[in-house]
Write a structure and sequence with these properties.
This protein is an alpha/beta fold and 261 residues long. The chain has helices at residues 2-21, 48-56, 71-83, 96-104, 128-134, 140-143, 163-167, 173-182, 188-192, 218-228, 243-246, 248-260; strands at residues 33-37, 61-64, 89-95, 111-119, 144-148, 154-158, 186-187, 205-210, 232-236. Strand 1 (33-37), helix 2 and strand 2 (61-64) form a beta-alpha-beta unit.
Length: 261
């Protein structure tokens, strides 16, 4: 009995160690590993519908935890996740996560494709805030709240009573309320931090656009997709900023296209 207990404990340690390292549960095989990067006001579980469908199609998946503290540091964190994967990677980012993958893929030759889901794709020296100012609209300034931090910066939240109409209008209201309660704040300096050299200039990209996005206007999304020379652009008419939650199948189809090159 003691031997069995020891073996069970060892098995738990191995499983826990794999999870911390971000290793996919299934072997990569011939398919690339898909690394998903959430954006501001979201968390890794926001990819749940995408993860389920990708695994059904045989793709190993990692939903990376995006720290949301600062662009360079967040990108380095995701870059370490990428480097832990053996074999090719398709990197997908939502919202601010697009800024992160734009920088995290740089210098990682195993990244074969970038998928932007209602996401920022900044140019070098450009921030998400810069893009938002260039293409005004939406309701972000109306719904954001600040929580001061000790270093003079602020954590930003979306007011829970406005989360549904601003962030997730095409998601069932009950689900949107859970998303509002579990949202993770982004530090304001992260949205204002300038991007380094963008990986989308050297790595093929695919874009999923949300037609009714109130965080990143559709005009901004179309501009970034065109500037990046995207191999394919899919626009979801009426899609909210949480288009990956409301239309996970469309995200998966685009990721699979990126995986196939």
């Amino acid at each position: 009995m003691r031997v069995l207990a020891a073996l069970a404990a060892a098995a738990l340690l191995v499983t826990a160690g794999s999870a911390v390292a971000g290793t996919p549960e299934a072997p990569a095989g011939a398919r690339p590993t898909v690394v998903l990067v959430h954006g501001a006001f979201a968390e890794s579980a926001s990819w749940a519908g995408v993860i389920t469908r990708l695994r059904e199609r045989g793709y190993p998946v990692i939903a990376a935890a995006n720290p949301l503290r600062g662009l360079a540091g967040d990108a380095e964190h995701v870059s370490r996740v990428i480097r832990s994967v053996k074999g090719p990677v398709v990197l997908a980012g939502h919202s601010y996560g697009g800024s992160v993958i734009t920088n995290a893929a740089r210098g990682n030759p195993n990244v074969k494709g970038l998928v932007f889901v209602a996401a920022f794709a900044p140019e070098q020296g450009e921030s998400g805030a810069d893009i938002a100012k260039r293409f005004p609209g939406g309701t972000f300034d109306e719904v954001v709240e600040k929580m001061p931090l000790g270093d003079g910066s602020n954590d930003l939240y979306i007011r829970q009573d406005r989360f549904w109409d601003h962030f997730a209008a095409d998601v069932p209201a009950a689900e949107a309320r859970v998303m509002a309660a579990t949202q993770r704040p982004v530090r304001d300096v992260a949205l204002a931090e300038k991007s380094g050299a963008p990986a989308w200039k050297t790595v093929p990209s695919w874009f999923l656009l949300a037609g009714a996005d109130q965080s990143i206007t559709i005009a901004a999304q179309r501009f970034m997709a065109g500037r990046a020379g995207a191999r394919a652009v899919v626009e979801i008419t009426g899609g909210s900023h949480a288009v990956g939650v409301s239309h996970p199948g469309a995200v998966v189809d685009l990721v699979v296209k990126a995986a196939r090159g």
